Amino acid sequence: MNIAIAGAGIGGLTTALCLHEMGFQVKVFEAVGTIRPLGVGINLMPHASEVLHRLGLAEVLQAVAVRTRCIEYRTKYGHLIQSDPRNVAAGFSAPQYSIHRGDLQMILLDAARERLGAQTVEAGKSVAGFSQTSSGVTVQFDDGGTYVCDLLIGADGLHSNVRRQLHPHEGPINYEGTMMFRGALEMDPIGDGRTMVIAGNHDVKFVTYPISEKARKQGRALTNWVAEVRNSQPRHIYDADWTREGSRDFIQSFKDFQMNDMDVVDILEKTEHVTEFPMVDRDPLSIWTSGRVTLLGDAAHPMYPIGANGASQAILDGRCLADRLAANPGPQGLQDYEEMRLPVTTNIVLSNRQSGPERVLDIAAARVTGPHDRIEDLITREELDEVAASYRNVAGFQRKGK
Ligand SMILES: Cc1cc2nc3c(=O)[nH]c(=O)nc-3n(C[C@H](O)[C@H](O)[C@H](O)COP(=O)(O)OP(=O)(O)OC[C@H]3O[C@@H](n4cnc5c(N)ncnc54)[C@H](O)[C@@H]3O)c2cc1C
User: Fold this and answer.
1) What is the CB neighbour count within 10 angstroms for residue 376?
2) What are phi and psi of 264, to 5 degrees?
3) Stretch 354-382: mean pLDDT, rounded?
4) Residue 6: enclosing H or E segment and its boundaries?
5) Rounded to whole angstroms, how far apart are CA atoms 86 and 195?
6) Which residues does a 6 A CB cutoff place in the pocket of ligand 1?
7) Is 0.85 surpassed by the pTM of this model?
8) Is the pLDDT of residue 250 over 70?
9) How many A from CA of 99 to the centre of ligand 1?
10) Do 178 and 225 form a contact (C-beta atoms < 8 A)?
11) What is the pLDDT of residues 166-220, one digit of tens each?
């Protein structure tokens, strides 16, 4: 069976590796002419890391990515609200990795080219649409070319053409009103060099975590950060580009952040290259699959980047799709995949609209009035633990015995 994948992003490449492992013939078509390591930091949750370990990528991941010990949620005054462990010692079956998105994409691309053949991933082939019969699919490209295959997987990201053909009346993407400014700076490590910090509240939030194991081993940290500022009302937009150059006006919103282990404004000011990306998602779909064509990753379920789910859920989709197709090659396998993954990811899209695990920030922001307040006087441990545990449930990763 010959399967075509639109998009050589995190989801498309993982899917190609999983399908190959199950014995399928795969071809990946990527719109950009040269696949370059774009983006900044990204996180893989333990159950997504497990999928990549099963593909034999543990060693290369551990050489490149930082194994995150925990996520610290803090107020803007620096109070520790909650520490949410993510490592193997805390009972997870695999680490949470913090990594440069470009490094992750290149690890997957190298593995795909090595295992599936150098010609498997074809760059500069933008999928415009498809036609299908009961026996096959013809993929159509922007350059007028075509490719005939048995199944087509639309892993072509947020602005998916495959999704547009399946759901032509859907309309533009939803902008939540928050702009995410992003950058990375090499500096001295913050704390143990393995901690992700999320501070502030829903309107003004600072997220930071180290993303380079190589820098960590040299006693340094490649510190990825995301500074989020809500500056608009929710509305529909057409334009969301991961590579857009960011303005610097947002820095003033972080002047009153007081962390005892980092100078937030200094980090923002010293970073040379800043991009901006709006916090966007789409309403969950009722179907992903039509006959021999289905959707995967951001093409299927774009979500707010909360709780490290964008890449993680795309990877889990890829594993599930390959396993379902191995059990049931053909359109029924696609339906089985959709049946398993659509409800799970729908819940995450909706939970992320309510801030997901970051809800603890808003609980604290509503009660803490200044640096001298004590968190333990204002919020119970049970209240905080409930938020973390219920999100683990929604996102589908659990600690052993919990
Ligand atoms: C350039 C870029 C930078 C990013 N940077 C970050 C980041 O720093 N942090 C973060 O959390 N997330 C980032 N993301 C998003 C993140 O990769 C995804 O949310 C997540 O990994 C899900 O992966 P995906 O494979 O579904 O989508 P993506 O990783 O977005 O991959 C989709 C792929 O499809 C390709 N494509 C698009 N249209 C077509 C078409 N018509 N035909 C063929 N191919 C097509 C795209 O070029 C891309 O390679 C970035 C995405 C991109 C494209």
Assistant:
1) 9
2) -60, -50
3) 91
4) strand 2-6
5) 10
6) 6-12, 29-32, 38-40, 42, 101, 126-127, 155-157, 161, 242-243, 297-299, 305, 310-311, 314
7) yes
8) yes
9) 15
10) no
11) 999 998 999 999 999 999 999 999 999 999 999 999 999 999 999 999 999 999 9
Q: Which two tokens stand for residue 241?
A: 């580009």
- Candidates 346, 214, 369, 206; CA nearest to 282 is 346
Residue 93 pLDDT: 87
Per-residue model confidence (pLDDT) at position 401: 57
**Residue 9 Cα to ligand 1 middle (Å):** 5
Query: What is the longest distance spanned by two Cα atoms in the chain?
Result: 69
Instruction: Say if residues 322 and 21 touch (Cβ distance below 8 Å).
Output: yes
pLDDT in tens, 128-161: 999 999 999 999 999 999 999 999 999 999 999 9
Q: How far is CA 98 from CA 95, 311, 358, in A?
A: 10, 11, 18
CA quadruple 194, 200, 201, 205: dihedral positive or negative?
Answer: negative
DSSP strand E in 194-255: where? 195-200, 204-210, 221-230, 235-237
Q: What structural domains does the chain harbor?
A: 2-36+102-172+285-353 (3.50.50.60)
Q: Which of 149-153, 367-371, 382-386 has the highest mean pLDDT?
A: 149-153
Six token digits for residue 252: 């003033």
pLDDT-above-90 percentage for the chain: 83
Q: Which amino acid is at 87?
A: N
Distance in angstroms (rounded) separating the CA atoms of residues 32 and 381: 48
Under a CB-based contact definition with an 8 Å cutoff, are residues 338 and 289 in contact? yes
Q: Which among 118, 171, 115 has a CA at the least distance from the CA of 285?
A: 171
CA 67 – CA 62 distance, rounded (Å): 7
The span from the CA of 312 to the CA of 301, in Å, is 12
pLDDT at 402: 57
Enumerate residues 6+ apart whose C-beta is below 8 A from 171: 236
Our mutation pick for probing the ligand 1 site, out of 27, 29, 32, 42, counting the most ligand atoms within 8 A of Cβ, is: 42
Task: State the CB neighbour count (10 A cutoff) for residue 58.
Answer: 15
